[in-house]
Design goal:
Strand order of the largest sheet: 1-2-3
Mean pLDDT: 79
Low-confidence stretches: 120-128, 130-136
Largest sheet: 3 strands, mixed
Radius of gyration: 23 Å
Structural class: mainly alpha
Order of helices and strands: HHEEHEHHHHHHHH
Strand content: 5-15%
Shape: globular
Number of strands: 3
Number of domains: 2
Helix content: 40-55%
Length: about 300
């Protein structure tokens, strides 16, 4: 029997990871620290009692009324083969993680996963790359604009460029996620198996027809998903719960985030300024969605 009245409050992954790294240093776990110091840490909590779940460490204490949890460490490597984690290291790290998680939260960490860390998204780095790739004519145009624009418009323009990149990343991350999960269920012809509402079907037909009329604009992408935006992508996930339920068990959670991102996207599409509050909403929702679909 546990001595705590558990809160079942899920810990913040970033805060937990910072504490874990300090713990490893203070307890001379330098080898483990070197492996994970530059990783991304995601703590995934379940609502299933830990005693009913499998654990990597069979001897780990599992409290009768605690829920199970697992941790994913995304480690920066050049290929999957370079992740060399022995069972001893994993076992040691698992025990350290349980030491660092407050008992009163009511979670027993049962397993640890290691996976390669994809190149981190950096809007500033992308902007620098974009500028470096500008053609001579584009640079001349930028110089001309620079000479007549007010400092306020220049400042807001830089902020809006970052907003666009964040929206571009999260929208395309959702597209690729839907494609990957759907292919694993239905194969390459996955799209014809997905249930689409009337609005999504109509948008798809209209945009494809417009593309045929204006061929000089080029193709939107290699998949029908690239003809759809936030609202349609959210509708696909909601209308196919049998495909995506393991990733989005709560429709309300997803609906709120998709609607907020959709509204921000509409502002960007009309060259309206997105204030600091909405910029923070975009970043927060993007991070939350990425954590939800990370694996």
């Amino acid at each position: 029997m546990s001595i705590f009245e558990f809160t079942y409050e899920e810990p913040d992954s970033d805060y937990f990871f910072k504490y874990l790294k300090k713990y490893l240093i203070l307890n001379d776990k330098t080898k483990i620290f070197e492996i994970i110091k530059d990783a991304k840490c995601y703590l995934k909590c379940s609502s299933t009692y830990s005693q009913k779940l499998e654990a990597f460490d069979k001897s780990i204490e599992r409290r009768w009324d605690a829920f199970g949890a697992e941790i994913a460490f995304h480690v920066q490597v050049s290929s999957d083969e370079e992740i060399k984690i022995t069972d001893d290291i994993k076992l040691n790290l698992l025990r350290c993680c349980n030491e660092c998680l407050e008992d009163e939260r009511g979670y027993d960490i049962l397993d640890i996963k290691f996976m390669p860390l994809m190149e981190e998204v950096s809007p500033i780095a992308d902007l620098k790359h974009i500028v470096s790739e500008l053609s001579v004519d584009s640079v001349k145009s930028a110089y001309f604009v620079n000479s007549i624009m007010t400092p306020d418009i220049k400042r807001k323009g830089r902020q809006m460029a970052e907003v666009y990149l964040d929206l571009y990343y999260v929208e395309n991350s959702l597209r690729l996620f839907i494609e990957k999960v759907s292919k694993s269920n239905f194969g390459d012809s996955y799209f014809e198996h997905l249930r689409l509402n009337k609005e999504t079907k109509h948008a798809l037909q209209v945009r494809k027809a417009e593309e045929q009329k204006n061929r000089w604009l080029g193709l939107r992408g290699t998949s029908d998903l690239f003809y759809l935006d936030f609202g349609h992508l959210g509708a696909i996930i909601r209308n196919n719960p049998d495909v995506f339920k393991d990733y989005f068990p709560d429709d309300h959670w997803l609906n709120v985030k998709i609607d907020e991102l959709k509204n921000c996207r509409n502002l960007v599409a009309h060259n309206s300024f997105v204030n600091e509050h909405l910029r923070n909403v975009i970043k927060t929702n993007y991070i939350s969605i990425l954590k939800q679909i990370a694996e």
